[in-house]
Amino acid sequence: xxxxxxxxxxxxxxxxxxxxxxxxSDYSDTVVFWPxxxxxxxxxxxxxxxxxxxxxxxxxxxxxxLVARLLLTGALHEDGLADFCDGFGCGGDKARILGIMKDxxxxxxxxxxxxxxxxxxxxxxxxxxxxxAASAVFATDPFSKLCAxxxxxxxxxxxxxxxKNRISYARPGWVKLVFQILCGCLPLFFLLSLSPWFALAxxxxxxxxxxxxxxxxxRIGGYTGDCCGATFLLCEVSMLLGVSIMVNY
Length: 249
Description:
Blueprint: H1 2-11, H2 24-28, H3 34-53, H4 58-73, H5 76-90, H6 94-102, H7 108-126, H8 130-154, H9 174-185, H10 188-192, H11 203-219, H12 225-248
């Protein structure tokens, strides 16, 4: 239970730390629960979207739903995407990329990356019927976290000094991996109940994660926390793109 609480503390601003104090090893084992935290963040976003769509234009409902997720997560993944875009956008050798990503200031590539991400996300969700959009949000969040979690299972940590939060993620065994996959895939049921063709949309985040891992391995020899956050959001928007294609064509 402490490991699940540790995952929620990492991914949200819920003050569970007031009642539960997870150990360092609990935080190290949180990767297996990443998709399960997506049930919370994706569920809140989906409920906010459905509720907003009943009284507001769809685009406004989508924006408010994304704001609700930002308030819940503290823009954790968005910060990672901005740092990732700055680091890999500016280029250079491994030391330069890691140094740029460690800098707390946001650069041009980071700003452009966030703008493009939100333009795509708002446009794609707004083009879907409310129930379909909510189902897509609830499905893509856990599944994208599942894809992002595989980075820690496959690649080593890139910084020789370790993570700045001093958390070193442990690779899960087969039992935990199966649990992780189930948590990432079960919310797809709501989306597939609308149309089984939506299963094809899961190909896009998988391909996105693989391509990003190949780039990370080649450029910096591993991953960082910013890489995980960026992978989650990029997998999410790629899956929404797949859902939109299925709906329109």
